[in-house]
Amino acid sequence: MKISKEARRTSRQLFRACMVDGKLDESRVRLVVSQVAASKPRGYIAILDSFQGMVKTELENQRALVESATPLTPDLQAGLKTSLCQKYRRDLALEFQVRPELLGGIRVKVGSDVWDGSVKARLEALKASLS
Questions:
Q1: Helix (H/G/I), strand (E/B), else coil: 129
Q2: Per-10-residue mean pLDDT for the chain, 131 residues long?
Q3: How many angstroms separate the Cα of 92 from the Cα of each of 10, 47, 58?
Q4: What number of other Cβ atoms are within 10 A of residue 91's Cβ?
Q5: Neighbours of 16 (CB within 10 A)
Q6: CB neighbours (10 Å) of residue 81?
Q7: Contact call for residues 61 and 111 (beta carbons, < 8 A)
Q8: CA–CA separation, 61 vs 70, rounded Å?
């Protein structure tokens, strides 16, 4: 179903109203959803779908997933957090995971951005170039 311009505009306005100092306020999100669901304006389902997509994207952009083949030292974790926060100009919540199948290196995912510096990715790229 295609969303109307009016519904998209309304969902953007609601999303902006949920931002406080550049951060998404969860209590405002809950309030907006409950008020829209209760008042049921024209096209409210499309408005809520669009709003949900914007909230989901914003939450994904506030979180960084760092995967490594071996556990990272606290100093390295702190350095990664500092550099990622500077790059994105926002405070990110970092989650560290150990994934032995990467063989070495790290993979970082912030929102839809992925930096893959793992040995596994390099080997797969080499394999693809040779075939």
A1: helix
A2: 86 94 91 94 92 94 94 95 92 94 93 92 91 80
A3: 28, 28, 11
A4: 11
A5: 9
A6: 17
A7: yes
A8: 25
Residues written for the chain: 131
Q: Is 20 helix (H, G, I), strand (E, B) or coil?
A: strand
C-beta separation of 91 from 131 below 8 A: no
Q: Are 69 and 105 in contact (CB under 8 A)?
A: yes
Task: Supply 58's token pair.
Answer: 């914003």
User: What one-letter code names the amino acid at 55?
Assistant: V
Beta bridge partners of 116: 107
| Beta strands 19-20 and 23-24, pairing class | antiparallel
Query: Do residues 54 and 12 touch, judged by C-beta distance below 8 A?
Result: yes
